Amino acid sequence: MKTKTLFYNARVHTQAAALVVDSIAIHKGRIVAIGNNLQHDPDFRSYAKLDMKGRTIIPGLVDAHTHLYYFAKTLRNVDLDGVDSLGKCLVRIKRHSEKLGRNEWVLGNGFSHDRFKKVIVPTRFDLDQVTGGRPAFISSKDEHTAWVNSKALEMAGIDANTCDPEGGRIERLPDGTPSGILRENSAYDPVYDIIPAPSRRVIDQCYRQVLDIAYRKGVTGVHSMDSPDAFEYYSQLAEKGKVGLRINYYMSAEKLSELLQNKIYYGTGTDFFRLAGIKIFTDGALGSQTAHCFNKYTGSKDNYGLAVNSDRTLQSLIKKAARLGLPCAIHAIGDRAVSRVLDAFETAPRLDFGARHRIEHMQLIRRKDISRVKRLNVIGSMQPSHCPSDITLMRRFWGARDANAFVFRTLIDRGIDLAFGSDCPIEPLNPMAGIAAAVRRARPKSRDIFYPEQRISAAEALYRFTVGPAIAAGQQHCRGYLLPGYPADIVVLSEDPTRVAASRIADIEVLATILDGKPKYAHVSLGL
């Protein structure tokens, strides 16, 4: 692609007041003009002109909640997402294990016993049979439960005498010994922390794979909620100009004291990697039945979920972060967790420079708390793809309360800013699938719509994958729109998602992804 390029005969969604034009001009990685029939304007005589033949151009898509670095590391693991029985899981794990060295860890992701055709909670003994004496750590689909084997428990020193940690739970067999199921970070971190880290060479290879996946899905930026080691990795890439995406990073709260000591403030970084806030947990997840709720889980005796951090801890972390101008992105899935986060924000210090607090996921919310979200100017960082994935679980565990789940229409109508993401790798890094999920609220090819009155339009969903993340990161002045002066982060689509049937949105093809004026992926038909 030439330094000076004009795209014409297109449908260009600028995202500014629903303005759609047919031409967009780029010079040195910046948008210099938008309008209609610019190919005939003498001011652009020297520009290379590309006829889009009616194709659609949108701003680069941004995923507002990912674990991108972790996603890269999982590419080496056995993938159990969608496997519908314990037996099939064990077969897949066994085949993977046989390819590993004698003492190598067996790592996996995506198992979900609640989605098995016959619900069976697995144990360490099941894993023992197929891992050949190797230690094993298998994450659940929601990443809030770990399934480990006897070797891993032994290496971590977890036995019948080990007490449940604060904010976590060790599931046990009738004799009191650990079953191999560990709920939440505080319970499974003693195992996870002894897993050898992959080499830099392996991580680099996996990260390049992730970039390729992102480009093919039209992703030019992400908000990363990764572990502290990811910050160091991204920082090193940024120094070499090799980040490959525009990343807003939310540092784990455990590193807040270090940030304070080094006086690393909100917005520190580059155009491609910047510190955008602090990530904090308040509860678990629906699939693991650890999301913190006001009412107990249907079918349980007294399970209301787990409070991962106390109210006092939340308030303390928010105030410390504010000393650096850092907003907090707080994980809250259950309605009680959401309410507790809002309580903490009620007393939070004022933030400047466009920084805003966020609630990550906000899957279940009491209607009376919605007005507080608006009044406190909190961003709702939500993942539409979770909605169709969790329909069965919401009905099973939340019952009639599920009418308060994923209330996109209500939140938007109340004027609450939403930023959409995927929670990758829990759901695929695929914004078009996310748009489809927000519009349909049903699984692909299914007519089982989850509260159809909460559906939103494709244009509204697209806005929350472009402008929404920019607002959430305090960057709407320089990201999210296709306007003069903005970076040329552009995606070309085969069809216009606002003009096709809802059932076809997920199948729209990304034909090109352009980041900072440079093609990162392009179909041969475009001639870029």
Describe the structure.
This protein has 528 residues and is an alpha/beta fold. The protein has 16 helices and 24 strands. It has an eight-stranded parallel beta sheet with strand order 8-15-16-17-18-19-20-21. It folds into three domains: 4-59 and 491-497 and 509-526, Urease, subunit C, domain 1 (Roll); 63-67 and 199-490 and 498-507, Alpha-Beta Barrel (TIM Barrel); 77-192, Diaminopimelate Epimerase, Chain A, domain 1. α1 crosses α6 (200-216). β19, α11 (367-375) and β20 (379-382) form a beta-alpha-beta unit.
Most strands sheet? 8 strands, parallel
The CATH class assignment of the largest domain is Alpha Beta
Gyration radius, rounded: 23 Å
Indicate the percent of residues in helices.
25-40%
Brief summary:
By secondary structure, this protein is an alpha/beta fold. The protein has helices at residues 68-74, 86-97, 124-128, 150-156, 185-192, 200-216, 228-239, 256-262, 311-322, 335-346, 367-375, 386-397, 408-413, 431-440, 458-463, 467-472, and strands at residues 4-8, 11-13, 20-21, 23-27, 30-35, 48-51, 56-59, 61-66, 78-79, 106-111, 136-140, 145-148, 169-172, 178-183, 219-224, 246-252, 273-281, 328-332, 358-361, 379-382, 418-420, 490-493, 510-515, 518-522.
